[in-house]
Structures are given as structure tokens and as C-alpha cells.
Amino acid sequence: MPLMPVRTPLPNRPVALVTGSTSGIGAAIARRLAGDGFALVLHSRSSAQAGQALAQELGAAVYIQADLAQDAERVRLVREATAAWGRLDVLVNNAGISQVIAHADLAAATPEIWQAMHEVNVIAPFRLVALAEPALRDAAHGGRPACVVNISSHAGVRPKGASIPYAASKAALNHMTRLLALSLAPAIRVNAVAPGLVDTPLTQSWVQAQQLWRERAPMGRAARPEDVAQAVALLLASDYLTGEILLSDGGLNLT
């Protein structure tokens, strides 16, 4: 695929790359960051039309298509994202995959499913951080630390989730977040947001989960994508927080 055209750097305007940002949580994060003054690099694996439309909606935004299961595509994404606006201040690792498998059905959780889940949910975020590190360090020279936010899941904290491979991949992402926070400080802060159930078109059919959040969560509902975006914005606004896994589950963990 051809390189993105280099845009004119925006003086004093930070730039954020948000993976998986053409719908759902990722799109909500992109819209929130645009409203907070960020220039955006949007990404998805396949929905180019939605990506281009969102970029046009946000104004200071470009879209790049890449398959994060492929390392060459990760390299290209970071290279083009860094070139797009001439800097990179924030990386939000939102893209991920899941598959519903009953936890007791061990035979259904095949090695292929484990490998695919680990590749996209763990290896890809790590590689994107490693590839983006030079640009993030350069951005931090302006005074404020650069920042990475990984979108995890409460399934990585509690024995829950769509499947055991999914929950284990998010637990790995959480621990990786803490390890990277230690390794990259003080120039780059690394945190994670761990949502519980989030209202999206996909989860509307999850009747039992919806009922659980209505009846057991202190806030009485599942999260909206905008709630997760607000948690990301909170972590980005701090110059001090690092290594945090911010649960965003409406207090369900308390019950």
C-alpha cells in the first residue's frame, strides 16, 4: 500500500494513534480526543470506508488500514502514522479480537484460537509500543511525558470473559502494561483501561450479561463507549499516573 502523504506538523497540537478506531469504543475514543485538541491517526483492519468517513468528520485526522496480526503491517502502520503529522504523542492500543467459548468447553479453545488471540491482543500492542517508542520519546522532549493507553478488559482482572483464551490475553496485556510502565518511565507513561460490558451492537444480544450489569453493578448499567473514552482522556490528562489498570465496570467488581 502507498505511504500516507506527509501532513504539515501542527504546532503545539499533540497527535494520537488509536487502533481499531472506526467503530464502537475506538471511534468514541477518537471523537473524545479530537474534542480535546488532538490530531488523530485512525486505524482498522478492514473498514476503510468507515475510517475515511470518520477522518473527514473529525477534520484533523487521517486513516490507515493495517492487519495487526501481521508484523510487517504493524511496522508500516507506525511508520505511516508517525509520518502523517510529523510527530506521535499518544498510542491507544484499542484493537483486539474475541471469541465466545464456554469456559468449561476446553476442547473448543484450540491452539489456533489461543495463538490468534495472543497475536492480536498481546504481541501486537507490545510491538506497536516498541515501534513507536522513538517517536514517543521525541514527543516527550517538549516537557510532558508521552503516553500509551492499552484497552484491556475486566476479564483480565477477574475470572470472567467471553472465553478463557480471551481473558488470559487481557491478563497478559495488564501485566505487560505494568512492565512497560517501569521500563519506559519517565519519558513515556503506560496505563490501561479495563472495561466491563460495553453497550455496542454486538453486545445487545448478550441478554444475561446485560441483566447482570443492570442488577449487580452499582451504576445499574453497562458502560457506553463514551464512558471508556472518558477514562482514556482521564489517563492522558495526568502527567503522573503510570502502570495503572483502571477498571471501568460501573462498580461491578465491588459485588
From TrEMBL:
SUPFAM superfamilies: NAD(P)-binding Rossmann-fold domains. GO terms for molecular function: oxidoreductase activity. It comes from the Bacteria. Pfam families: adh_short_C2 (PF13561). The keyword Cytoplasm does not apply. The keyword Nucleotide-binding does not apply. Keywords: Oxidoreductase, Plasmid. Belongs to the short-chain dehydrogenases/reductases (SDR) family. This is SDR family oxidoreductase.
